[in-house]
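Today's session is about reading a structure prediction critically. Students often jump straight to the picture, but the first step is always the sequence itself: look for stretches that repeat, for charged clusters, for runs of hydrophobic residues. Only then move on to the predicted structure, which in these notes is written as discrete structure tokens rather than atom positions. Here is the chain we will use throughout the hour.
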Amino acid sequence: EGASKYTGVTFNKKMNKWQAQIYIEGKVRLIGYYDNEEEAATDYARAVFKYKGQGALDKAREQDSFIIDLSDVPPQSPIPKSSDYAIKEGASEYRGVTFNKRMNKWHAKIYIDGKHRHIGYYENEEEAGADYARAVFKYRSQAALNKTREHRARDKSG
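Below is the predicted structure for this chain, in token form.
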């Protein structure tokens, strides 16, 4: 399945459609399948308002107001965590990536302007790491990406 720039929306490859879903009382509830991402996001917002109220809708809008759009960013290789960082069993070996047990997917996020920003959910850890690297490239510059990779190279050689 593919990541979306909107919360509650993923691309279902089997159906070749965008899928909206919401968590209600600890269970995933399917909202529907859509031809485009924006329609799915609109219905997700309606479901948030219906089932969780205006406060939850406002919070969701605030979180999604900064959309991570990587469509114009060239491919990047994932950024491995520093060797002086002990990687726990089941944790990602890449920066900006964690495993979400509830969704059973890898989650990529980046810290920008004092807030964690959602990049997407992924079946594959490397894809999540690659999109995190693309977000670093776009929002923190090529210099920041190079600095991170140089630091990692020094860790390996030293």
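Discussion point for the tutorial: Helices lie at 37-52, 54-64, 125-140, 142-157.
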